[in-house]
Amino acid sequence: MLPFYYEKPNEFLPKEELDRSEKPKGFGLGGAPGRAPERVKRPDQIVATLKRIWNYLTAYRGRLIAVLIMIVIATGLSLLGPFMIGHMIDHYIMDAKDGLMAMLLLTAIVYGGQALSTWLQNIWMIQVSQQTVYKMRTDLFAQFHRLPISFFTKRQQGDLMSRASNDIENISASMNSSFIQICSSTLTLVGIVVVMLSLSPILTLLTFMVIPLMFLGMKWISSRTSRLFRMQQKSLGSLNGFVEETLSGQKIIKAFAQEQEVIEGFTQRNEKIRLSSYWAQAISGFIPKLMNGLNSLSFAMIVGVGALLTIWTDAVTVGIIIIFAEYSRQFTRPLNDLANQWNTLLSAIAGAERVFQILDEPLEVQDEKDAKQLKSVVGDVSFEKVDFQYEQGQSIIHQASFEVKAGEMVAFVGPTGAGKTTLISLLSRFYEPTSGIIRIDGRNIADYTRESLRAQMAFVLQDPFLFEGSIMDNIRYGRLEATDDEVYEAARLANAHSFIMRLKDGYHTELKLGGGGISQGQKQLIAIARALIADPAILILDEATSSIDTVTEIKIQEALERLMHGRTSFVIAHRLNTITQADKIIVLEKGKISQIGSHEQLSKQEGLYRKLVLGQQMLEA
Ligand SMILES: Nc1ncnc2c1ncn2[C@@H]1O[C@H](COP(=O)(O)OP(=O)(O)OP(=O)(O)O)[C@@H](O)[C@H]1O
Fold first, then answer.
1. pLDDT value at 4 more than 60
2. CB atoms within 10 A of CB 15
3. Which residues touch 123 (CB under 8 Å, ≥6 apart)?
4. What predicted TM-score, i.e. pTM, was given to this entire model?
5. Is 31-359 in CATH node 1.20.1560.10?
6. What separation in Å is there between the alpha carbon of 591 and the centre of ligand 1?
7. N- to C-terminal Cα distance for the chain?
8. If exposure means fewest CB atoms within 10 Å of the residue's CB, which of 1, 284, 345, 495 is most exposed?
């Protein structure tokens, strides 16, 4: 009499956690905001983050060196171009020397070479940055799967998604532009200063006069924009979290008629993003304008003073004025670029910080080095004085002791929050007991790897999770190497075959994420088939509370009886009439086992079980 659901092991969470992860928190009445990116406060933090990004980059050292060489060539050629034009004006036009065509050709080659080397540096840098973020993305995804379940219960999925997508994208974009820009701008600046000083110290000084103004302007702007960019990313994380919550909780939102609240909640968050993005972009967009203004000022001064110097002295020629005019343009551009890149870099550093935060999270407690593989399990289970607490000082399970023989069915009964789910989570080592020992076939499960332990179990949870993919793939998820015939056989035993065959594409029917497209009862049957194909020694079943039509319920009960046959089964019971045939009923009250016995024994004893049975009988009467 047990309508249960199959679930894959690592989906098995205490219901409190499922509640937290699956339901929209507050239905738009203010779901917890996404985790704020840590502020990049101090230069040493910036340097530390840059170093970590650099560590990733060094894997592509060869390509980076090639990029650097191209940057040097492109910068050298960009400095040479104006010089050649000035030289041409002074000597081949003013002095009418022969060879103007050759000089023109040479100049064209210089500019062509500059374009080619710039293109190459860009292409190679894109390769490096894409490979780097590919590695980061892989590390982050692998890390998600190494983190303990408790990590996910404390965080919004949307915020985590935002780190894996937006933040990584930010790093990639910034790496593409920042690395090249910073190197080439610095080189250009140094080169220009050297050439300028050698041509005319007076005009060089004039060009430099605008630098303090640029510096002050940039400092003023970037102090504001960096704060705004951080705010923008934080708001985006929060918005993503909110969208994810509200989309996954659509049914509940509609059921509670909370649509308007959800839209208002979204609008508030959206407004925050709009404001921070507007101001961040408006203020940072002012940088080029400021630079252009100062650039024009410096240009006017060079031409004016240069013209006077040409008239009064021989030290400056028309060619030199043109070289300076061009260099002054080239001089402010790298400054401008450096300022812009600083903003991009700050935004990427904030993103990288958020990614590294996850990579630095403590992992699920690792298996002991000498942990063994748990194999050939018969199915005897014992708990010996097991204690557990989620938070220090809050005892959830207290001195739990019981024994189960292989093939027995055990039901856990007790009020909500008594610790039934938690107790079962300890058997699969999603959490470790604070003290006490859990044994399978007399072997302490702490001595075995978690993977080999969980491979001995199948989980059938209240809400079965089906993946996007065909029904065949979803059933085969229980044992990937199962043949098609084994899948059909499992589906037959699970009473799923006939409904699957009625679907247009049969076993190849594609399910949407979460099993959309088929009924709740059908999802359960597929989940049971999946558990059957896994063929575990131990079954963990979380009884469904949702109502299913009588015909389907009978099919599910039949399928479950077949599934439980010959396996040790732990059932978290919500309805007493479904567990009367259990070999053992364990009654939990506030984390303590208060009674153990069969239905017949416990019904006769004074205690919670008897009260629950009487309560249920009164309800049914
Ligand atoms: N991840 C967690 N962190 C902190 N406390 C938790 C966590 N999960 C559960 N709890 C707490 O542990 C206690 C036992 O929860 P548990 O889910 O095991 O109870 P349960 O008997 O299965 O309840 P229900 O019948 O409602 O499913 C509850 O007080 C719950 O609030």
1. no
2. 19
3. none
4. 0.61
5. yes
6. 10
7. 20
8. 1
Q: Which of 458, 459, 449 minimizes the C-alpha distance to 374?
A: 449
pLDDT (tens digit, 9 = 90+) per residue, 507-544? 998 887 666 678 888 888 898 899 998 888 999 988 65
Tokens 């389907």, located at residue: 552
In order of 103, 340, 344, 354, 471, the CA distances from 335 in angstroms are 30, 9, 14, 29, 59
Whose Cα sits closest to atom 13 in ligand 1?
417
Residue 76: is it exposed, middle or buried by C-beta count within 10 angstroms (0-12/13-18/19+)?
Answer: middle
Select from 459, 571, 449 the least CA-distant residue to 9: 459
Whole-angstrom distance, CA of residue 450 vs CA of residue 455: 8
Q: Where in the chain is the domain with CATH 1.20.1560.10?
A: 31-359
Quote the distance between the C-alpha of residue 544 and its chain's center.
31
- Alpha-carbon dihedral 211, 217, 220, 221, rounded to 10 degrees: -120
What is residue 514's three-state secondary structure? helix
The ligand 1 atom at the shortest distance from the C-alpha of residue 588 is 21
The three-class DSSP label of residue 437 is: strand
ipTM above 0.90, yes or no: yes
Distance between CA atoms of 170 and 352, rounded to whole angstroms? Answer: 8
Q: Work out the burial of residue 327: count CB atoms within 10 Å of its CB; fewer than 13 is exposed, 13-18 middle, 19 or more buried.
A: buried
Q: Which helix (H) or strand (E) holds 5?
A: none
Determine whether the shortest distance from the Cβ of 543 to ligand 1 is under 6 A.
Answer: no
- Whether 14 lines ligand 1, by a CB cut-off of 6 Å, is yes
According to the CATH classification, is domain 9-14+374-620 in 3.40.50.300? yes
Which ranges in the chain are annotated with CATH 3.40.50.300?
A: 9-14+374-620
Compute the distance from residue 364 Cα to the ligand 1 centre, in Å.
Answer: 20
Q: Residues 316-336: what's their mean pLDDT? A: 79
Task: Calculate the average pLDDT of the chain.
Answer: 81
* pLDDT of res. 366: 73
